[in-house]
Amino acid sequence: MSDRVKIALLLTPALLVLGVLFSGGVLAALLQSLGYFPAIGMTEFSLDAYREVLGSRDFLDSLGLTVYIAGASTAISTVLAVAAALALRRSSGRVSAVVFQLPITIPHLVAAVGVALVVSQTGLGARLAAALGLVGEPSEFPALLYDPYSVGIILTYVWKEVPFIALIVLAALRGVSEELEEVAGTLGANAWQRFWYVTLPLISPGVVAGSLIVFAFTFGAFEIPFLLGQTYPNILPVMAYNEYRDIDLAARPAAMAINVVIAVMTALFAALYLRLSRRLRRG
Amino acid sequence: MASPYKKRRAPVGLALVAALVALPLVPILLWTFAGEWRFPDLLPKEWSLRGIQHLTAPGSRVAEAVFTSLGIAVAVTVAAVAVGLPAGMALGTYRFRLKGLVIFLILLPILVPPLASTMGIHLTFIRLGLADTAFGVFLVHLVPTVPYAAIILTSVFADRTGELEEAARTLGASPLRAFVYVTLPEVAPGIAVAALFSFLVSWSQYILTLLIGGGSVVTLPMLLFSAASGSDPVITSSLAVVFALPAVVVLLIALRYLKPSGDQGLPGLGKVS
């Protein structure tokens, strides 16, 4: 058997499964977004749904919130991850592995429940504030759930994603010889200069790749904002879902148009990530 | 020269990070066993087993949901590894044209939310009678799991040199024998990682199950989600503990039996749920 046939045969099952269930699904979403929806007698292609959705106030509010949540979660996670990786780079691999991998493996929903129990107005945080005499009543503690700033959502993402980026940074740090930093030190560089001019450039490809994955993920993820988000606006995937659940089937093309927007944007992030990681591997 | 000052700093950093990791888990554990815990008490005044009893109470449907979750996750794991193994073998062993494109296509369902494709395919599933069935849910769970299995196994196969296999072939072993007796044992730990991963991704899945299962397929996250939207932290927390349990077990297994995966980290680790 030639290698080419062998490769094709080996790849077939995976490509078939993903081709039908994933690509087929995205294609169906695309067709329905274009108004091709024979089940309810819509067989004419049109861009009406896109015109209706993209121009609407709801969509723009939702897009803004989505970018804000994904951006804030990614930025905070990245900074904390680099700090955590630097702090833990000298501790044993096994201990830091447990500490970091626990949040990674624990489901998002559990993380959200835990964060809610910490930051709600009767949560652990409010109780501590009360013990310190900062608040008397629960209502005096700031509302951090279902709030316009999406604090609970962002904190949940930060808790989940910091370890993910930190592990990538730790791996990159292991590749950085400490000698380089020591040489810089001997030459008179202070701690900040050593970090900024020596360490950071060496770990930055890993940092960028990790943050890109986190941004793409938080951009398209559904359940945390669905659980902890305010009623309006909510993020794009939740908006798509709400449109989809609308009893009026005519709202379907709009839901699908939002889905297509999400798919296109996250696919762009994926392409960017892949380009970057390939350049990384080539060194 | 590594200064002793830096060495002393590490445990403080570790303790701080560990405390932050533990922070949201602590109230979950406390609430699970809390009886009376009013604001502003820092600790419950009374303890109770109401949360634990709820888990086994016949009316709570928890046992049934755990069973459904486990069944789907195990089936998904077997299928994802069976499909991901040959793909990983091809991508990890061979160089070929369009390889970059194939990797992109396989990775895409991890970064493009499966919610989008699942909403698109829902109608077809309804027509085929797959909606509202566990089998339908199993099928859509393959979308996020097959890519992980394939990518993890790709790096496993890429790390091999293939020399042992060649030696076996030179000594007269058939390709099948060489695969079963040489290749498979060599990649077994990688298969275990891919399997554990697929299991966790399926186990943690909420929205795909909600969409395709349509409320008829009740898995554990369904119960947890409706509890979390309600106002009984004791029930919510005890469900959260059960839901988190496999993650903890998998982590312990991975740390105990699998050698540290070194610089790779685990590729898709971040996106478990």
What's the shape of chain B? globular
Average of pLDDT of chain B:
87
Low-confidence spans of chain A: none
Catalogue the unreliable spans of chain B: 1-7, 261-273
How many angstroms does the end-to-end distance of chain B come to? 43 Å
CATH top-level class of the largest domain in chain A: Mainly Alpha
**What would you give as the CATH superfamily of chain B?**
MetI-like
- Helical stretch tally of chain A: 12
The total domain count of chain B is 1
Class of secondary structure makeup of chain A? mainly alpha
Q: How helix-rich are the residues of chain B, as a percent range? A: over 70%
CATH class assignment of chain B: Mainly Alpha
Count of domains of chain A: 2
Structure report:
The complex is a heterodimer of chains A (283) and B (273). Chain A is mostly helical and 283 residues long. Chain A folds into two domains: 19-55 and 246-283, no CATH class; 67-228, MetI-like (MetI-like fold, Orthogonal Bundle). Helix content of chain A is 76%, strand content 0%. Chain A contains twelve helices and no strands. Chain A has helices spanning 3-33, 48-54, 57-88, 93-105, 108-119, 124-131, 151-175, 178-186, 191-220, 223-228, 236-245, 252-282. In chain A, helix 2 (48-54) crosses helix 12 (252-282), helix 4 (93-105) runs antiparallel to helix 7 (151-175) and helix 8 crosses helix 9. Chain A is globular, with a radius of gyration of 23 Å. By secondary structure, chain B is mostly helical. Chain B has one domain (61-271): MetI-like fold. Chain B has twelve helices and two strands; from the N terminus they run H-H-E-E-H-H-H-H-H-H-H-H-H-H. A two-stranded antiparallel ribbon of chain B has the order 1-2. In chain B, helix 3 (50-56) crosses helix 12 and helix 11 (220-229) packs across helix 12. Residues 1-7 and 261-273 of chain B have low confidence and may be disordered. Chains A and B meet through helix 1, helix 3, helix 4, helix 5 and helix 6 of A and helix 1, helix 2, helix 4, helix 5 and helix 6 of B.
